[in-house]
Specification:
heterodimer, A: mainly alpha, 5-stranded mixed sheet, 21 helices, about 60% helix, globular, B: alpha/beta, 7-stranded mixed sheet, 4-stranded antiparallel sheet, 11 helices
Chain lengths: ~400, ~325
């Protein structure tokens, strides 16, 4: 590809990334995103969230990081194209489409989450594993391994790939063990230093423990298919099994076990690097018909997008906080019912759990679940058209 | 054998004089390869005509490809000599220096550069603006490659084919400055020899130095700097890993020690859980806003962050026997 074509393609990809970022921007910050943007000390280690929170006082913090995350995810296609640069153009198109048009990337690009970052780190390791050059900079790989572990716990799922890379190096076994194990030990040490992280891991792992195996399997299949728009998921798995790529198979099993435990849609992106690696392995052996593959992929992605369209209306947290700001309400905001950190992110005033004894200090009360007790309090008025319900102190003239 | 590459673009008036001067000077076995970028003034036709009288001359006409660096690398690719040399075709480089550069390579140097910025060299009659531009570029480019030359942007240099072969694939031949690429690709222990060059004024034609070329130079510098940074990281990768791990351990270990009672003493653990729940219920604080800093036998120390964007963080001591948090006080 000539230089001009590369620059043009990079610009088009960037435009694509910005569009995807704006798609996510419409709905507002989700609770997990708020944790990272505000550097809340759980559930993940501090490296990425520390960087993300540095500009938290900037009004455009959210959009800035959405664009950065979307850019990283979309422009990552260049790493994949390097792995197939000697193949025919149809193969390169198939690889690019596998990454860019799968719902895993389409739905996650622009979210400020750790799963996309972990997927990118995995992509880097997979690139090192599959490239022709077998030189191994073991200590650099170990450093990136340390960085990835301290970005998110789920980096552990790609340990088989890291292990395979480290084993390739021609150094004594003890050094290999050190390179692999020391970062894990440090992560364990960090976990001990943060009881909140430990508690969060336990809650996460035991959530929905009563669900049957069939429910879990169905949810796993949903997440797995969501990652690669079914087509890339199936073809990718076939590819890594046929190639007997044991590190990739090992990571696939770990990611699957993880998703069986914690079935969130955003984990779909964790399958993406493995699935695309499988596609690449098939293409290298000329074992994939590229045209029908790309066509099927597009159809499936469109079907997914129609079934799960993006939400452009502001979240209840954003809507409510904007209403409170417009009404110039001051003082701590009491929230009755469950609420996530997205409320914290959207609020310029302190949020406190509802406490009837401290009600006199509240600027407003937000009820995320029905709180009929507030209706009984005559000094509090229900803010009209608010959902969830918002109560504010009446003016003294109103009570008279 | 010497392979002398002459990249040309619109040098039809200079080329005959240059070839004539070279043939008088070159007494060793040699070939001269004119690499022309399909010049509008038909320099390649002039070269073909000169070939009839100068049997050591070869002509490569490039159609659809332009650029001094890529012309040089293509010339090197078809060269047959064990000493590869390049010089400008605009008569600004003294042909007699070809012998000195050739002798330097034959004497054991991996690369020999005709330098305008060493003692005895000069840039000639450049206008002040161009002189400053060249000096600035040279200053920036000097420290970047592992092999340091006083004139890393010289267009007159020689390299042994033995040294060039391993690095040929690593080169990124865009723009003007191929010597900079070669110096950046050569191993640090390569032997460099420099000879002074007095730059002569251009006789015919015009300079190719324009804004596009200067912009390509900037991009080249950025790219080489990035590559050098990665090379540095690779050569010090163990130290980088050690520092990263050491830094992490230093940050994390004291915190583990500060809360170790949480794991080693069941009574303290129970008290901590109870206290945090009570404080959460009475103050309305969220557990996730309370970061445990230290655990003692009779209280815990936490950082409480206000539950809002940009919320302030305050340190509190939470005694096990009280429901009121107290601002942190120093404890020996």
């Amino acid at each position: 590809m000539t230089r001009c074509k590369k620059i043009l393609m990079a610009l088009l990809l960037e435009l694509f990334a910005v569009v995807l970022a704006f798609v996510q921007f419409g709905n507002g910050v989700q609770t997990d995103e708020a944790k990272y943007l505000l550097n809340i000390p759980y559930p993940h280690p501090p490296l990425a969230r520390f960087i993300l929170h540095l500009n938290q006082n900037w009004i455009h913090q959210e959009l800035f990081w959405r664009i950065i995350f979307a850019t990283l995810l979309v422009q990552a296609v260049w790493i994949l194209l390097r792995l197939v640069q000697d193949l025919k153009q149809s193969a390169r198109v198939a690889v690019a489409a596998s990454w860019l048009l799968s719902t895993g990337v389409l739905f996650q690009a622009g979210t400020v989450m750790m799963a996309p970052l972990t997927a990118l780190e995995a992509l880097f390791f997979i690139y090192l594993l599959l490239r022709d050059d077998e030189t191994v900079d073991m200590w650099l790989i170990a450093t990136v391994w340390l960085v990835s572990l301290f970005t998110a716990y789920q980096a552990v799922l790609f340990a088989p790939i890291v292990c395979a890379l480290i084993l390739r190096s021609r150094v004594p076994l003890l050094q290999k063990i050190a390179a692999f194990a020391i970062p894990l030990l440090l992560l364990f040490l960090y976990t001990l230093s943060n009881p909140l992280a430990l508690a969060s891991i336990t809650i996460h792992a035991t959530k929905d423990v009563s669900d049957t195996i069939f429910i879990r399997l169905a949810a796993f299949l949903r997440v797995w298919f969501l990652g690669g728009s079914v087509v890339v998921s199936l073809v990718g798995l076939y590819g890594i099994i046929r190639a007997r790529a044991w590190p990739l198979i090992g990571s696939f099993l770990l990611v699957s076990a993880y998703v069986l435990l914690a079935r969130f849609d955003y984990y779909a992106i964790l399958f993406m690097p493995l699935s695309v690696a499988g596609v690449i392995l098939l293409l290298r052996k000329r074992q994939l018909a590229t045209f029908p593959f790309v066509v099927l992929l597009c159809l499936c992605s469109v079907a997914f997008a129609l079934r799960m369209p993006p939400v452009f209306s502001p979240s209840p947290a954003r809507r409510t906080m904007q209403m409170i700001d417009n009404a110039h309400i001051h003082g701590p905001l009491f929230i009755s019912g469950s609420f996530g950190h997205n409320w914290q992110y959207e609020s310029s005033q302190e949020i406190v759990r509802f406490n009837a004894a401290l009600l006199s200090t509240a600027g407003a009360v937000i009820c995320t679940s029905p709180c009929t007790a507030m209706d009984a309090r005559s000094e509090w008025a229900h803010f009209r058209f608010s959902d969830p319900a918002v109560y504010v102190l009446k003016n003294p003239s109103d009570t008279n | 054998m010497l392979s002398l590459i002459l990249p040309t673009f619109n040098e039809s008036k200079n080329l005959p004089e240059l070839i004539g001067a070279l043939e008088k000077v070159l007494t060793m076995k040699h070939e001269i390869i004119v690499v022309d970028d399909n010049s509008p003034d038909k320099t390649w036709e002039v070269a073909e005509e000169l070939k009839k009288h100068h049997h050591t001359l070869r002509v490569l006409r490039r159609v659809g490809r332009r650029g001094l660096s890529s012309a040089v690398t293509e010339g090197f690719a078809i060269a047959q000599g064990d000493v590869l040399m390049v010089m400008d075709s605009d008569l600004q480089h003294d042909p007699h220096l070809v012998i000195d550069l050739y002798d330097a390579i034959k004497g054991g140097a991996d690369i020999a550069v005709a330098s305008r910025y060493m003692k005895g060299g000069s840039v000639g009659e450049w206008v002040r603006g161009r002189r400053y531009l060249s000096k600035a570029g040279t200053y920036i480019a000097h420290a970047l490659p592992p092999v340091h030359s006083s004139d890393p942007m010289s267009g007159f240099f020689a390299v042994s084919s033995k040294s060039y072969e391993p690095i040929a694939k690593k080169l990124y031949p865009t723009g003007f400055k191929i010597l900079l690429e070669v110096l950046a690709a050569l191993p640090a222990k390569s032997k460099l020899t420099e000879i002074p060059l007095q730059f002569s004024p251009r006789k015919h034609g015009e300079s190719k130095l324009n804004m596009k070329v200067q912009w390509q130079f900037v991009l080249q510098i950025v790219r080489i700097a990035t590559v050098r940074l990665f090379q540095w990281l690779r050569s010090y990768q163990f130290s980088v890993f050690l520092i990263a791990c050491g830094f992490t351990a230093v940050l994390v270990a004291p915190r583990v020690w500060a809360i170790h009672l949480l794991y080693t003493d069941a009574t303290v653990r129970k008290n901590v859980q109870h206290t945090m729940k009570v404080i959460s219920d009475t103050q309305g604080w969220l557990i996730s806003d309370m970061e445990v800093l230290a655990v003692y036998k009779d209280h815990i120390r936490i950082d409480h962050r206000e539950h809002r964007k940009g919320g302030t963080v305050t340190c509190f001591d939470l005694p096990f026997d009280s429901i009121s948090p107290a601002l942190c006080s120093f404890r020996p």
